[in-house]
Write a structure and sequence with these properties.
- This protein has five helices and no strands.
- By secondary structure, the chain is mainly α.
- The protein has one domain: DNA polymerase, domain 1.
- Pfam families: Sdh5.
- This is FAD assembly factor SdhE.
- It is found in: Cytoplasm.
Length: 88
Amino acid sequence: MESHQSDPLRRARLRWRARRGLLENDLIFERFFGRYEHDLSDADVGALTRLLELSDNDLMDLLLARKEPEGDLADPDVKRVLELLRNV
């Protein structure tokens, strides 16, 4: 069973990291955190952290489904979080 990410400081850091240079990305992440922030598991936080390591343009391509995750990003946790991001 996945554990809930209950550390508010860790969630706050993640939310701060999600602030992007592209307004479109910012809007998607704001809606995402508004809906899911308090329900994120440790696995979700790990997947989000990996997505946030991408450049703004690469992240935008994934968020808008112009591309699908490849390589080490093509794992179930990243795909699940990406699906949530795409549907907010």
